């Protein structure tokens, strides 16, 4: 990621969960496809949700003895893996690779027309008008959902843009003060951000394909998509701006990294590195932004605003803190979109806090409460979860209100392997006017500062958090090369961690809404044959199976964990491309990993998302040909539009690399890795 190189603060991706296959789901909602059934399928809580929705409570599906297996590997063989596929050989080259016996086909590429009247992609003559009707850039989060009416959608985040490989004759702009960035190019960048909702359907050949003329197809972007706010910061004075006296309007969403789906089928888009889009002309003696004269100076410093990663603020006052400083408080939230209503207004739910949200994966507690996990992707920042006050029901509008009525918690990982979830509630503890918090809106706008005061545990860059229906959650901690030896703790045990680790949380009582639990380190990433790395894997893990920089995660319909990686420009530390790995969490093979898919050079892997029947897997390859290309033997230079490290996936003369979503199926059909 080019902007990560500047701030040295990478990552990406997204996640997954199980779904309903197009041809398996009942089309009549009266035939039993209630919200309880949806929750049971997605979260494996059949008995529990029966309780939540009006009957008795029993043990969660996954809360069985199989989950209490020995933590230490005994005599186990990789041949006993629950993931039935032959692992792929590691490497790094111009194209993607998938394990034998599987197809990984391109489904959607940057620039593909997704509206009936959209023009064909023409990278030599791109325009904002075209981009607004075409698939966006840098696909990250992907979800797949089939509604009661039988229609299926993909929801895809478009995290950011790489001008040097998008536009002819430009090259990298961030290191030359954006001299080549015109307003027309900025507009195209804005239109290429955000998200896409597209209907897909299975063709006669059994393959999923875009329904190009679907009325559900929609682009959501920061160019002109109007949004509103809910929760404690909605209408707050600190959200009032030149274009919005009510503090209720945002123009779009951006840097949407990972996300989530709610149990009722709405799409959550996380706003991650929003700070990078803000501009100032005021620089200090070092050439860094000077916010000392700003009323919001303390908050801006804690959030890294303005990042000056893009030239948008040169052309739009709403991205220029010299002109409209409160605009920064409109970003860094979780956005809810209803894919079933293409005219609906997306909502930024401020009750989930403001930070660099990596994602927003959901679960449902035994009581029926909505739980949303979210990491703040920054070195030494925190892990959060939100718990609704009410319970999920069949009432879709009421369910959406759960996202504005609940409690946000931040995690403290104790060295005795316990975890405490501390509420961010105005008036409690240090969160008072004395410390600058006049109301709950202030607590949400300055979530990071509130969490600092509560003594949350600074983590090694929390990325995706993947809950499973049994009260377990897996936390991707991607790396942190700046942690010094005197800053390590049990949950972040390695100084100068280049490869990251994964923590497993077991919430008390198997209840995702619990305010305490236990944690354990599942793996410490990196090469297990290099003693200095200090890696921890199951000893059966092969040279192909270990990885670095976990980023996104998914749990498939079999309850098995999968991990995708984003090493950024430091990929040469492993020599491997980014990819998708199985990662065993149970039994003697706990901590055993196998490579299933790998990216073309310079790309990171996002998604993954499994269909509920486990027969289809959606993957997203982000920024092919850009990250760390100086370290590619024989290439050893930065990619440009004219001279990219790869022209994946088209490999056509003159066509730049194109971020793309892939669909993976087993040849001949059947469940993946079963
Ligand atoms: Fe955009 Fe933290 O990955
Ligand atoms: Ca990510």
Write the layout of secondary structure elements.
Blueprint: H1 2-7, H2 35-43, H3 46-52, E1 97-98, E2 102-109, H4 128-131, E3 139-146, E4 152-158, H5 163-166, H6 183-192, E5 194-202, E6 208-210, E7 218-220, E8 226-230, E9 249-251, E10 256-261, E11 267-271, H7 297-303, H8 312-315, E12 334-337, E13 347-349, E14 361-364, E15 369-375, E16 379-381, E17 383-391, H9 396-401, E18 406-413, E19 418-423, H10 440-445, H11 447-454, E20 459-460, E21 462-468, E22 472-477, E23 501-507, E24 516-524, E25 550-555, E26 561-565, E27 579-583, E28 593-598, E29 604-610, E30 617-622, E31 660-666
Parallel strand pairs: 8-13
Antiparallel strand pairs: 1-28, 2-31, 3-4, 4-5, 5-6, 5-7, 8-9, 10-11, 11-12, 12-13, 14-15, 15-17, 16-20, 17-18, 18-19, 19-24, 21-22, 22-23, 23-24, 25-26, 26-27, 27-28, 29-30, 30-31
The site of MU-OXO-diiron has 9 residues, from loops.
